[in-house]
Amino acid sequence: MDKLIVSPSPHIHARTSTSVIMRDVIIALAPAILVSVLFYGWSELLVLGVSVASCVFVEWAITKWLLRRPSTIGDLSAVVTGLLLAMNLPATTPWWVVFIGALVAIGVAKMTFGGLGQNVFNPAITGRVFLLISFPTYMTDWTMPSGFVRSVDAVSGSTPLSALKEALMSGSTISDFVAGYDGGWRALLTDIGGSAGEISAIALLVGFGYLLLRKVVKIWIPLSIFATIALISLIFNSVDPEAYTGVLFNLKTGGVILGACFMATDYVTSPMSRTGGIIYGIGIGFIVMMIRYFGSYPEGMSFAILIMNCVVPLLNKWFHQKKYGRN
Amino acid sequence: MSKITFRIGGVHPDDNKISRNCAIETLPLPPTVYVSVSQHIGAPAKPVVAAGDKVKAGQVIAEPGGFVSAFVHSPVSGTVKGIVSRKDLAGRPVPHIEIAVEGDEWAEGIDLSDTLVTEIPSDKAVILEKIKAGGVVGLGGATFPTHVKLNPAPGKVADCLIINGAECEPWLTSDFRIMVERPDEIVVGAALMQKVLGCRCVIGVEENKPEAVEALKASVAKLGYPDIQVLSLRKRYPQGGEKQLIDAVLHRQVRSGCLPIDAGAVVQNVATALAVYEAVQKNRPLVTNTLTVTGDCLPVERQHNYLFRIGTPLSFIMEQAGGVPEGAAKIISGGPMMGKAVSNVDAATVKGSSSILYLTEAATKRNPQSNCIRCGKCSDACPMGLEPFLLNRLYKAGDADGLEKNAVQDCIECGCCLYSCPAYIPLLDNIRQAKGQVMGIIRARAAAAKAAAEAVK
Ligand code: SF4
Ligand code: SF4
Q1: Of all atoms in ligand 2, which is nearest to the CA of residue B373?
Q2: Are B374 and A272 inside 8 Å of each other by CB?
Q3: What average pLDDT does this structure show over A169-185?
Q4: Band of pLDDT at residue A167, cut at 50, 70 and 90
């Protein structure tokens, strides 16, 4: 006992840390990543690798050369952004497109706002939307799975949502489409071409269960997104099943699960209070369905989250925690 | 698992009650005691002895210095050496009465036997007077004079007396030991206070102490006082906070800026109940208390629960317990969530001393702070429903209005926010400062309003 530490209470800490939380998110993403690598093979691994490496590098480079601050890559948040960005891209995306996405995600959406915790928009989604607008061909012509488990030649095709959108726009009905679309309804679990990460709903939900168990995320944001999407599609679908897609289809496609469980729950860009979170979730669900039913983009999850990100500061201002003894 | 608990916030630190099986031992008398005149909330007591006086244990050596104040008694027999200025735990100078210990003679009329006296005096004024004369103060942390708390302002009525046996701070076991070893005395003490208030009584104990719940239940059944109930509460920090305990037991909340009595409740700690028993039934003033010596670098065979004479220097107790253990980086008086770091081991114990806790650097060190990730863990943890991240931001921006609007003054300084923050932001450190500033503003405003009202008259 040479020198006693004398500092104010509390003297102990739960020993959670930002990097532990981010590590948990990475663990939670692992099953879905594994499934997508199994199904998409080397090309998916390349996208993941390039995305993570670029995100980490861009953050490191910016803190070192532009901000001249201690590096923050140790908190693992750049790794999470990299993984999420990759999971939102087709496995066929060329490496330099992935790099541009990472540059926008970290360089623009995260670091210009002051780094982790200061940004308004979800970095991974910002990166993805930027690519969607700038390089639409790479982003919508998605690959049918042909990975390590089935050695089928790569089949290029559209995602079920964009194929359906095209069909509906050209005047056919949903039943025509189903008859013509090979395998679209049969195997939503793994067989759907689409963003790599959304390939397995089960794997994503298992990962999300882990996050709930570790108390990293709260369930109300995803739940209110799912409920809103289900409700709106239930109403429209029962009014006109030929023009409007049904509940399960809407929940399972277009990155809804990935977006609701892992992107909309991003701490920094979602509201802090429960009421705020529920309104935010309802907003996302509503915008997604409006885009799908009436807009020109087939899926809409990314746009919905970005739009609701703008509302978060207001939601944080209006809705507060319930205080003790002040009702 | 018990369902009874408070409704907002809270955290679950490991309880680490390693010293739970350490029965209470009587600590030997130190050669000298230093009795502080500021052992309670309120005005310091005024010494009534001078250098050279012979005193006996239990004799009054200082009188209340105001309405909210308390008697102080000599914990030992011996000779007063003088009124000396001595540093307290935090190193602030406070007047102490220094007494050289000679023998162990007690003042007349004090019953030192173990015989349980169960008969409750019929006149509540007598009980109140004896509590006051015994120098009893709240031993749960706040050290508010008990007779004042038991004597609500006119028009205010208590309908429930809550005896706090939650002991929700990790590591501490002194309350647990007295509940297991002296449940009868605690129940009689509760019944005495119940008589004063004329209401029902609930003894709340966290369920990680089943032996204490059993012992108290058995005593209540055996002694047969009406309207006393023992409740097992869920283990959750800060269950023992006055406002949280009222919410848990009565499902009522104390309005902001009000006292528990405004919600019809009076909360007293189990150790206070024991002190009330001794003061009223045995004429034995508050000169001893129980204290846990524990920590993560202290082997269990060196952990203790001691019955000590108030005024014994911490360093004397530490020596008796085998000295400072290898690896101790911080010494805490009180629990790890709300206790105070000791900078001065020569400080004397006071009425409210409850532990000497040694923590290693690994257990107590704060990691470097990083950016707030807006995870909301601090506001989820806050038992007052505040938003610590926001208060922290407002403090940094110097926005006193915003701080007051967001209720910084309601903070109970429980530490849950900082305990939970993954970014290690010194939330409570800053909120404490902010609270001090805002309280100052509120007081100044109240004083100005009062002055204005008087000027009108
Ligand atoms: S210390 Fe204050 S702000 Fe922090 S959790 Fe406790 S009551 Fe809330
Ligand atoms: S716990 Fe810490 S990091 Fe999380 S919101 Fe509160 S201050 Fe920010």
Answers
A1: 3
A2: yes
A3: 56
A4: low
Give the tens place of pLDDT for each residue, B171-202: 999 999 999 999 999 999 999 999 999 999 99
Residue range A11-66, pLDDT digits in tens = 999 999 999 999 999 999 999 898 888 877 888 899 999 999 999 999 999 998 88
Q: In this structure, what token pair is assigned to residue B456?
A: 């009108």
- A117 interaction partners in chain B (CB closer than 8 Å): 371-374, 423
Nearest-Cα distance to chain B for A186, in Å, is 39
| Phi, psi dihedrals of residue B70, rounded to the nearest 5° | -150, 155
Tell me if A11 and B11 make a contact (CB, 8 A cut-off): no
Residue B421: name the closest of A10, A16, A218, A118 by CA. A16
CA of B50 to the centre of ligand 1 (A): 44
- Strands (DSSP E) along A2-151, which ranges? 142-144
In this complex, do A12 and B13 lie within 8 Å of one another by their Cβ atoms? Answer: yes
pLDDT value for A177: 57
Q: What is the pLDDT of residue A150?
A: 44
CB spacing of A272 vs B376 below 8 angstroms: yes
Cα–ligand 2 centroid distance for B378 (angstroms): 5
Please compute the mean of the pLDDT values over residues A142-164 and round it to a whole number: 51
For residue B341, give the chain A residue with the closest CA. Answer: A6
Distance CA A60, CA A70 (A): 9
Q: A258 CA distance to ligand 2 centroid (A)? A: 25
Contact between A22 and A78 under an 8 Å Cβ cutoff? The reply is: no
Domain ranges of chain A: 18-140
Å between B21 CA and nearest CA of chain A: 23
Q: Tell me which DSSP letter residue A115 carries.
A: S
- Per-residue model confidence as pLDDT tens digits over B296-330: 999 999 999 999 999 999 999 999 999 999 889 99
Domains of chain B by range and CATH? 1-27+109-365 (3.40.50.11540), 377-456 (no CATH)
Pairwise CA distance, residues B257 & A84, whole Å: 47
Q: From atom 6 of ligand 2, which residue's Cα is the shortest distance away? A: B378
CB-CB under 8 Å, A268 with B386: no
Q: Which residues line ligand 2 (CB under 6 A)?
A: B 372-378, 388-389, 420-423, 425, 427
Q: How far apart are alpha carbons A302 and A101 in whole angstroms?
A: 14
B378 CA to centre of ligand 1 in angstroms: 8
d(CA A193, CA A159): 5
Provide the whole-model pTM. 0.88
CA distance B425 to B370: 7
Exposed (0-12), middle (13-18) or buried (19+): which is B250, by Cβ within 10 Å? middle
Please choose, from the candidates A109, A84, A100, the residue with its C-alpha nearest in 3D space to the C-alpha of residue A33: A84
Question: Which protein residue has the closest C-alpha to ligand 2 atom 8?
Answer: B372
pLDDT digits (tens, 9 = 90+) for B244-279: 999 999 999 999 989 999 999 999 999 999 999 999
**Could you give the ipTM of this predicted complex?**
0.90
Query: DSSP E strands: which ranges in B322-420?
Result: 328-333, 340-341, 355-360
